[in-house]
Structure formats: structure tokens, C-alpha cells
Amino acid sequence: MSFSALLGQAVVNGLILGMLYMLVAVGFTLAFGMMRIVNFAHGEFYMVGAYTAFFLVTVWDVPFVLALLAAGLATGLLGAVFERLVFQRFYGDELNGMIVAIGVSVILQNAALLVWGPTARTLQSPFEGVVAVGELMLSRERLFALACAAVIFLAFWVVMMRTQFGRAVRALAQDKEVALMQGVRANRIYPLAFGVAVGLAATAGALMAPIFSVSPYAGVAPMLKAFVVVILGGLGSIPGAVVGGILLGLVESLAGTLLGSTTADVLQLALVIAILLFRPWGLLGRQEREG
Amino acid sequence: MKSVRQNIQWFAASCGACLLTGVLAAPAFAQDIKLGVHTTLSGPASTWGKAMVGAAELAADDVNSRGGLEVAGTKHKVVVSSYDDNYKANDAVTAMTRLISDDNISFVVGPLGSAPALAVLPMTTESKVITMTMAFSPKVIGKEFPYSFRPVITTEEFAEPQTAWVVGRLKIKRVGGLFPNDESGQQMAMATVKAYGKAGANFDTREFFERERTDFLPLLTRMFAKNIDAIDLNGMSPTSAGLIVKQAREMGFKGPIIRTGGDATADIVKVAGLANSEGLYVHQPIDPSAPKVAAYAKRFTDKYKVDMNAFSPMFYANVQVLFAAMQRAGTTTDTTKIGDAIAALSGFDSVIGNVSWTGEQRYGIKRQIDAPFYIGQIKNGKSVIVASCSTRGCE
Predict the structure, then answer these.
(1) HSE-up of B78 (CA within 13 Å, CB side)?
(2) Per the CB < 8 Å rule, is A213 touching B239?
(3) Which of A196, A255, B119, B261 is 20 to 30 A from A15 via CA?
(4) ipTM of this predicted complex?
């Protein structure tokens, strides 16, 4: 393989990976931006989405695309229930909210371990094989995931920018008191928005189930990546999650391919430290005013 | 003044609390043999952890169904307690402290991983607790740790005979491999690279990865750029191995893939899929078609409703060895005498065949199990044995 092909392969791998990271990170940053909840259970909702799609496809023969939507909706509903029962009491209380989220994460993970066991399962992809473009080898299932991630994100963006719900979410994220004075019904918007955030994680989980397998721990790595992405892009910033996701995917792939895994891990964390040192609000986040 | 109903509720709650306290605090009978399991019950390595717990519980069921283990004319029931070490050294120390100090246990199935095993060795040695570890590190057995036994064949033992056979058969010249970035991974890398070198193949590229990693494309791309003939999967976790097989095949790699590590066939096939795992060469610690192993696998699956991992019968065999050693030593408490009796057992007829103890040359003490093992090739999702091996070679 020539160096240019190696570089090309690394860039393509990184872009695909970055788009998948972005999809997980968008929900995570939405929950934080609006409710100030650092939802460390986000990865477990990803895992629940992956299992939902797995059972729908393998047990009930539901077509994969429908399973993807059903996983997002069902897990989103579960997220809304959690929001009402647990998270709503911790809005604005970042430390306790984070501890509660870690608790929810442990409960969901161990519940999955008890119910479904530790063995990883794989979901048959509707698109298998590779597409060869010159020296580049592109996996069909990853290309499909890339396309789905792009469509899902566009749909989410349209909802956030063009609908009354999206405007209400943005208003609550920008200034809750002013939003309430303008008649935004926070009690209705919060569970819906949390459900959407969790639904996005679950859809990402379902989308990645054929690529990375399904297990009770499937959400651990994506959660860590989502956390890094939102630190890079800016906590609470949706465009930041897009930029951060793609940047992380590219750094991980290029450094991993050219320099090795250990160096790639060091570089990713060095990047996070550099951002926290020189631009703690992230690449596209808002600088919080003090006083 | 309390109503009658309130008094009844109070009385019932008090009785319940007393009963609960009594149940929780009830000591095992003085004659009971307490067997601890110190392993990983959460995370990707829990497949192996559950295999160890199952082995201890099934071996205990055997003797308890016969009224207990008869030692020096007295029958002893076997009670099993399991703790999770999360595959972490800190948690391993906590779990072992509970086993030794709280539960007063002197016989432990485990620890599983090298880092947990190394962390608890000083404690178990000082307390004279017999451990049966699955840790692949060569540092977990030695003259200074006379109570540490290893009932599984590790890369140190099987890598050379297996690699010599595979390299000779497939005429491999250049090999690449990914290893977990921890103590176990470093040890496996050393043993595997040395084994391929001895067999006449160059281990051209080795990469280390964090165990949480799921996307191996960058590392595989890097390896393929060096034009390797084959990939070695060593003893990484079953899920990681399955993902590497799947992603390597997705990238169009058609060369042989070899698992020079513990049993993970069922998980590799589940994760990588039937087509991707076809033709893989795997280390097979047991012969699943042997009647005793097949019967054990059925018992395991019937009880736990999951596929049996091949390490389970090895631990089951070791608990059988422990019980036999207690009978020969005539004691259930003197771990020095029992340890000596274990090491003295030779050609013991167990579920996995005749087992003995070796390790004097390599580790300075007979604490490493010597049992037959096999090389399998995955065909249609199942491992078909293609060579039978001992530490001396495969045929």
C-alpha cells in the first residue's frame, strides 16, 4: 500500500468514525446544554438502543431500518421516564446530577448483564462486503452508517431550527427564566428533549450494533468518546459536537494509522488538555460570564 | 397509643429483621469446606469469570449431592462464595481481603487476570491461601509463592508448539498482531513473538491497544501496510478478537488468522459472524467431543443457560484435584500439606483427561498444570480439532 493510499484510507476511516462519534455526542451535549446534566448514563442508553435493535431484527425479523427507528423511539421513551423520575430533580445541580447519572449508568449496565449475560452478540448488517476505490477499501456497512448518521443529524437539525419544539429547547438552553416568561412550558419540553437526546444515543447504538457488536459494556467506549467530543467542541454546543466528533475521528484514525495506538491515545488526551488550557469553553462553546 | 394493627406490623417487622439478621450472620457449619471464587464478574472478561464460578459451583454440587467430601472419616459440605475483582488490582485486593478476613477462606478459585493476581499474591502467600489462577503472567507462580497454582495452560506453554505447527503448515513468513496494553498483553507479546521467531516467521508488527477499544481499523490499516501474511490474535478478550477478525475481513484481508490464546471460539464466531470466522486457527484447551467434557458442557449449559467457555472444565478439574488432595493429605485446613498433595498428584483422571503438575524448569516449582491441548480450525462456526498437542509438540 502506497503512503498516499495509507493516508487516504486513514482520512476516510477517520471521517466515518467521526460522524458516528458526532451522533453519540449530539445527544450528550443537548442534555447538558439544556438541563446542565452531565449524563454519564448516555452510553448505557446507547447500549439499550443496540440491544433493542438486536432483538427486533434477530427475534422478530424487523427490517434493520425500522429497528433503527424503533430503537430510537423506545429508548427515547425510556429516557423521558428517567427524566421525570430521576433527572428532573437535579437540573442545574451539575455535581449531584453527574453522580446520579453514574448511578443510573451502573444500574442499567448491571441490569443488562443480569438479563442478557456477558457474551457479546452481533447483528447481521444489511450491507456487507467492501467497496474498492483505487487502493482504498470502504466497508459497505460503515458507509451505510455514515449515510444514516448524516440523515439523522440533518433531521435533528431541522427539528431544532425549524419547529416550535426546537425553538423552545434552544430558548430554555439559552436562558431558562426568559424562556419561562415567554410562555415556554418547561415541564413538557424537558422530558421530550431528554427523550430526544437519549433517542439519538440509542439510534447511534443501533446503527453501530452491526459494526461493533452488542454487549452490556457496548456503551462504555462511545460514552468516553462523546465526553471527549463535547470537551473539544464545547459543552452544550451542537455545532461543536459535529466539529469535535469529526476532529476526534480524524485524529484517532490518522495518529493510530501513522503513529500507533498508544501515541494516538496520548495525542487525543493531549488535545483535550490543550483545549481545556487555552479554550476551556471548547472550540464552538460559549464562554460563561462570571460574577 | 398504638393500634393493634400497628403493633402487629411492628412485631412482624421485628421478626423479619431478626430472621434476616440471623440468615445473614449465620456461620457456615464448622465442618464446611469454604471455597472462594475471586474473579471478574463484570466487563468483557466476565465470560471467563462466569466459567470459573460455574466450575466451583458444579464441583461443590458433586460432593454435596453425595452428602459432602469425606476426609479422614468426616464428611464436609462445600460452600462457595464469589467476589468480583472488576479485573482491577485495587478491587482484587479488596475482594481477597474479604475472602480471607471476613469469610475465613483458605482455598480460592482465581484470580483471573495478571494484574489482580500479582496484586494479591503477597497477601495470599502470607495467609497460606491456596489460589488457582488463570493469570497468564509467568510471575504469578514461583518458589516464593508456594500456594499459587495455575490450572490453565498459558501462552508460555502452548505458544511454541502451536506456532511451530501452524507456521510449518501454512508457510507463513510475516505476521502481525495486536495486544492489550497491560501486564497480560506485554507478557503475551513476548511469548508470541518469541514463538513465531523460533518457528521461522517474522513478527513484523505488534501494536498495543486499550482493552476498551472497539475500532481497530487504524491499527489494522497500519499492519496491512507492512504486507503481513497472517494475523495473530493472541489471548486478548473474546470480544476484541471477534471485532478484529470482522474488521480485518471487512478491509479485504484474506490471509490466515490465528488465535494463539485462550478459548474464545464461540464469542469470536458470534461477534465476527460465520463467514468471517471460517478457517480461523484457534487454540483449543479441551476436546469438546470427549464424552466427559461434553457431559460437563451440558451440565453447565443446563444450569447457567449460556454456552460453556472451555476454561471452565479446567477449573472444574482443578477443584477435583483439590478435593482429592485434601483426601490424600487427610486434612481440610492445613494448606501446606494440601498444597504438597496437589503438586504430588500425577496422571490424575479428571474431566479434561489425565493431568499432572509441571513447571520446575520454567518457574522453579511444580505449580503449572500439565494437560493435553489442541489446535482447532473453525468450520461452519465450530472448532474442528486438526492437531493434538502437549508442551513438547503438536501432531
Answers:
(1) 29
(2) yes
(3) A196
(4) 0.81
